[in-house]
């Protein structure tokens, strides 16, 4: 057992590797080629890179949704790589994963009330009472700035931004120490993106959880993340404090990302 | 009121019911099938007909006021045997198809959700079962264990579950890669929860269709077996047993009241079950919605 690192690390991946299309075969595609990444308590880490750089695969492996071909994942210093199918549940107790497309991650059958309550119902064997549910759901709708009247609606009656807020409320009802956000703004328009970014900033100030955010949108990660990890072709090419990476990028992929993003000079969202 | 309209659009069941009612043939079939089931299961409670009462003086009599459908070779009332026989035949069809659906759902979900070795083993077993001719296996089982209703139901269920298995397994294979399931796993949801709240609502439509198909097949299997004299004991009233009387050429030529009622009952019921199945398939298949 290694000595406890400072600051304590919530979730850590070491030497993570993943290939698609069968290892050693001709059509093999290496998504991850040995990546180290760590999410300390209360930190906000942004994972940036082009499409296909392996950042989403990395987030899914950390969350337990994808099995790595090599490397280890540890949760609060404990190696959980070998727990197989139950890894997602183990990670879920600490870090909740927010999917890119809420329409795919949330059931279309259930009203908002039941969607947000689902984690509680799963965990408490349905012993939870209806009164608790209404109260808790209203509180979490309020937390993500949605009117409590939305509780009875179904997914198809909500806008993209409202859906992602419901997904956030559902993650937060688990009282996680961290959120793993996989391009949570990708399906939203620019003004809605800004609102969700502001919401995440406010929520972190209120509830103090760590975030691990996958994004290719530099203004968004600048507003939310203190540290950046830059990936290219399945490996980490640069990492450091957000401002120093953005102002003084060393790697060619990061320089290209910044060049492609003219509004990076705009001051970050307060 | 917008809330009312939203509520109407909300549930998945209601549009399915609306689509089903648009399928006119299926609605007619459903009504007729309900009537048949009511007559067969509640009819005996309301009348004093006795399918076992033997009247030696009334041997193969044509329809009369005493016996509306005539009497059979043992002097028993054909109408009584038709109603009680329907009870037997439909009980076999319904229970065998339900048992096959439950078995197919359980094993199909297990294979589809866990994958790996479990999936491979179960799928090979299904391949083996489906490569056997069902009728011959059931004849063999009935011969070994004796032809009783339980034997027939068990052996039919044991041979017909692969249809439900394939439907459920395929749905699970695509479901388990979807984010809704991943999210639920992230909350700590285990297999029983996923099956009840995520898999069952997806497969219930196709599964009901499978149940109707298998029920029709089982009614026909019972008829075929009993006709051959290999199904239920000859004194038990069933549509198949009634038909087996018609194996003689004299009966076939000169005594249509002995074989037309059970024949028509079997053909009509199977046809109605299939129409209802078609209606449910069109109502629940999202690609079919117009």
Task: Describe the structure in brief.
The complex is a heterodimer of chains A (270) and B (290). Chain A is α/β, with parallel strands linked by helices and 270 residues long.
| Helix-strand pattern of chain B | HHHHHHHHHHHH
Secondary-structure arrangement, i.e. CATH architecture of chain B: Orthogonal Bundle
Roughly what fraction of the amino acids of chain B lie in strands?
A: under 5%
Kindly give the count of domains of chain A.
2
Strand content of chain A: 15-25%
Specify the CATH class of the largest domain in chain A: Alpha Beta
Looking at how many chains there are and whether they match, the oligomeric state comes to heterodimer
Tell me, rounded to a whole number, the average pLDDT of chain B.
85
How does the helix and strand content of chain B classify structurally?
A: mainly alpha
Shape of chain A: globular
CATH superfamily of the largest domain in chain A: P-loop containing nucleotide triphosphate hydrolases
Biggest β-sheet description of chain A: 6 strands, mixed
Task: Kindly list the characteristics that best describe this protein.
heterodimer, A: 270 residues, alpha/beta, Rossmann fold, 2 domains, 6-stranded mixed beta sheet, 36% helix, B: 290 residues, mainly alpha, MetI-like fold, 12 helices, elongated
